[in-house]
Amino acid sequence: MARYGMVIDETKCVGCYACRVACQNQNHLRENEAYNYLEEREYGQFPNFNREFLPLQCQHCDNPPCVAVCPTGASQKRKDGVVLVNEKDCIGCKYCIAACPYHVRIIKKEGYIEKCRFCIEFVEEGGKPACMTTCMTGVRLFGDLDDPNSDISQFVAKNRHRLRVYKRELNTKPRIFYRKA
Amino acid sequence: MEGTIFIFWNWMVVIYLFVAGISAGAFAISALAYFLGEEKYQDITRFGAYIAPFPLLFGLMFLIYDLERPQLFWKLLLTLQVHSVMSLGAWLLVIFSVLSFFYFYLWLPDRFDIVELLRKTPQSWDKWAIVRRFKTHPLLEKLHRKHLNGFRGWIGMVGIPVSLLVGIYTGVLLGALVARPFWNNPMLPMLFLASALKTGTASICLIGCFFKGLRGMSREQIETNKFIIHSIDFYLMILSIIAILLFIFGLYTSPRSSVEAAHLIMGGEFTFLFWGLAVVVGLLLPLSLEVYELIPHFISHTAMRQHNPWISGVVSVSVLAGGFILRYVVVYAGQMAKIVTT
Predict the structure, then answer these.
(1) How far is CA B19 from CA B62, B77, B78, in A?
(2) CB–CB of B1 and A102 under 8 A?
């Protein structure tokens, strides 16, 4: 069984928002709905300062708080590690929105809760997520963490000391690893 | 590090949390009064039992309407997710509703006995055999109120822990979320429980004083009831003040996110609502009125003051208002507070 994960190289992101638009196309989202976000930050003090972009989407946690709190079992984690919402069972109580520390869940107009799905239908046919393939600087790497020959496994092996996960203190064990400069 | 932060639970959830507290509190106080003095405090027990089921029923309508898909709410009752406080709470509410309606029925005046009412169906209906069979069925006789009244104590005994759990659950629902630093505080359920019991007491007091009125009650009766209801309220006030102080203490002694969340009520957006309305109007004002009423009686054992319905009225209305504003502040501030990371 595959164990899907993603690496995001923060140092490469230029903030063009192509991933957001590609995601909206891929998932047929409305213009005010999005599954990924870019946080723009400024750091340092003049004259030594810079700007950085932080791409953010569902972290597909190994210990997902949204799955634990779901009262109907609509929010679930698949065996391959992808966290999905079963839209048939979702009653829209919004408890998972409250539980998500990354604030990536949105309410769809149809009344269920949705967020990044790792483009799983596409990936199962052998494709890659839209946010990864569209990126002109190659910020994202998606693949099977259990396959030692996959791009992502090799990248992780090489950059292990530079990778980190966000909000680690909450013990959510995200599947998205960020490479810091 | 945030995606999108928005207010997803609005005033409907605030109302639900508030009225669920009233229901739980009214039931618990009613059963407590029953065990303190079966005959002596019967009025309190009766009013508590009459109040208990209805605020919750009203709140459940809001709760269901607040869902994005209200038509699918029944899915909550087809499954039990042991890790989800909301799922556990849904089942708890089912149990509580059944108990409180049964308790309500047991305390209704005898003329509402359902067996007698069934027997009063029009004569013309007797032409159907099924109606005749039903009316003369021996089981119906067993359901007569005079056989059921013995259950009052049992329902009260089971009901106290269940109603306390309902009061606690509303706090645990919010407190269980690590992602929300303002809510993720062990004192929050305690704060909600104390507030629930207080609002329950206040609603009994209010309904007792104003809707039923005091006509036909002897001075002695009024004083006994007033004394016990204000004493219970007084202890709960003290408990609430401690809970509020410890709640804020808890926010300040937790990691940075909680400290920043505490700023929402300590100088931030909700300062006036929290300190001015929830604490001063909802706690200190009724507390001082109760001190005025009770302390001379407690300390120098003088007779109670002449009953002044205005004092009891102001106490109960301000407690109810304070309880509502407390829920409002907690629900809204909790959604604005976020985890701060480097």
Answers:
(1) 10, 21, 25
(2) yes
Query: In one letter, which amino acid is B255?
Result: P
| Gyration radius (Cα) of chain B, Å | 23
Separation CA B316–CA B15 (nearest Å): 18
Going from the C-alpha of A99 to that of each of A61, A146, B156, B213, the distances in angstroms are 12, 29, 35, 47
- DSSP secondary-structure letter at A176? E
Q: At what angle do helices B53-66 and B85-107 cross, to 10 degrees?
A: 150
Q: Per the CB < 8 Å rule, is B68 touching A112?
A: yes
- Find the closest chain A residue to B81 by CA distance: A71
Q: Which of A81, A63, A115 is nearest to B3 (CA)?
A: A115
Q: Which residue of A has its CA nearest to B181?
A: A101
Token match 């019967």: residue? B42
Structure ipTM = 0.89
Nearest of B219, B210, B195 to residue B314 by alpha carbon: B210
Q: What are phi and psi of A33, to 5 degrees?
A: -115, 140
**C-alpha distance from A143 to closest chain B C-alpha (Å):** 23
Nearest by CB to B179, from A93, A99, A166: name it.
A99
- Tell me the DSSP string of B130-190: HHHHHHH-HHHHHTSHHHHTTHHHHHHHHHHHHHHHHHHHHHHHHHT-TT-TTT--THHHH
The first and second tokens of residue B18, run together, are: 């508030």
Pick B75's closest partner by Cβ from A56, A91, A107: A91
Please tell me whether the overall predicted TM-score, pTM, comes out greater than 0.80 for this model: yes
CB B254 within 8 A of CB B180: no
Backbone angles phi, psi at B194, to 5 degrees: -60, -40
| Distance (Å, whole) CA B286 – CA B25 | 17
Question: Which pLDDT tens digit goes with each residue over B75-85?
Answer: 999 999 999 99
SS3 content of chain A, % helix, strand, coil (to 5): 25, 25, 50
What pLDDT digit, counting tens, does each position of B288-315 carry?
998 888 887 777 777 766 777 788 889 9
Q: Tokens at residue B237, please?
A: 């006030």
Q: Do the chains contact at A103 and B81, CB–CB below 8 Å?
A: no
Tokens of B309: 């319905």
Cα separation, B31 vs B45, in Å, equals: 6
> How far, in Å, are A76, A122, B186, B235, B320 from residue A79 at the CA level?
10, 17, 33, 52, 49
Q: How far apart are CA B90 and CA B86, in angstroms?
A: 6
Contact A83, A60 (CB under 8 A): yes
